Amino acid sequence: MATTKLSATKSTSRAINYAEKRAVEKSGLNCDVDYAKSSFKASRELYGKTDGNQGHVIIQSFKPGEVTPEQCNQLGLALAEKLAPNHQVAVYTHADTDHVHNHIVINSIDLETGKKFNNNKQALRNVRNFNDEVCMEHGLSVPNKDTARLRYTQTEKAIADPNTKSTAQYSWKDEIREAIDQSQANNMDEFKDHLNQHGIEIERVTPKSITYRHLAEDKKVRGRKLGEDYNKGGIEDGFERQIQRQQQTERASDTECQPKRPTSNRDEATERDTGVTQADWDQFAQDTNELERSRQAAESARLADEKARRNREERARAKQASRRIINNDRENGLEL
Question: N or C terminus: fewer CB in 10 A for the chain?
């Protein structure tokens, strides 16, 4: 299981310095990771995007014992390829805590469009969803709903005052959250039926929002007031994750029905821990290395083209300047 955090940075150089210092594995997307700082800077200058946020950092953390540092780095590169395929990305793996984790530094510039990476609510959802996809593709578990993303009003906080015995009490909004958390629905109709069984109905659904009514309290609240996971977008993301879990379970069931090939002790340990064989990891590592080589070759070719273009532009400017000097001298009646 991997959890993720996304943040912006005013200095990719500082982010890389911190991440690289303790890295046990590192890799790059669309750049040579050993020259990531200068490469990132050159791309921003090329497109004239040197102000504001220079980049973004994702912390991708795995539960203890689930992956090796090498595998962790490969998974971080796979996440970068899904999330920012046209950006320069440096992936650094740390193993100095119980949780092996990646520092994924993304340069702000899209190499194809020249536009900046948009760090908004949709980007946060994309990071989480792509991370879940990477984990499920390699037989790893996915995290449950992030309870840290709940929103509590001052009234709700007062109900759970830590100085009183009321810490175990729930507000009616908590009951709605709990009912939603327990849902295993994969579409809106199933979701409505589930909530009705818990005394909650969906009052209104718009393209961007959803409103719930607590029948016993006869009170209603919009999903965004409960937290992003309980708004329209979060609920639909939950449907997708539930469908993916069901498909994963079905594939696992089909695999169990097939005869298994003989495995080595190392393969057996890997299968027992993650459901993925060492051969799967080796193939994934090979694919990742080939992708990295092709990206580096493309980046080298792009930089060479840009250097040649800049040289041509400098020669053209020098020629124009020389012509202006000649014309000025002629206007002043000087002999050349």
Answer: C
**Is residue 231 within 8 Å of residue 121, measured between CB atoms?**
no
pLDDT tens column, 123-161: 888 898 899 899 888 888 776 654 444 445 544 444 444
Closest to 126 (Cα-Cα) out of 240, 29, 231: 240
- Residues 251-259: contacts with CB within 8 Å, 24+ apart? none
Give the pLDDT confidence of 170-199 residue by residue, as tens digits: 578 888 988 898 888 889 999 998 898 888
User: Token pair 């979701």 is at which residue?
Assistant: 191
Q: Say if residues 226 and 176 touch (Cβ distance below 8 Å).
A: yes
- Output the CA torsion 186→271→97→84 (10° steps): -50
Q: Which residue has the tokens 């298994």?
A: 260
Helices 36-46 and 12-21, axial angle in degrees (round to 10): 170
Q: What is the pLDDT of residue 178?
A: 82
**Using CA atoms, how far apart are residues 249 and 243, in angstroms rounded to an integer?**
10
What is the per-residue DSSP string for 181-240? HT---SSHHHHHHHHHHTTEEEEEE-SS-EEEEETTTTEEEEHHHHBGGGSHHHHHHHHH
Domains in the chain: boundaries: 1-143, 153-235
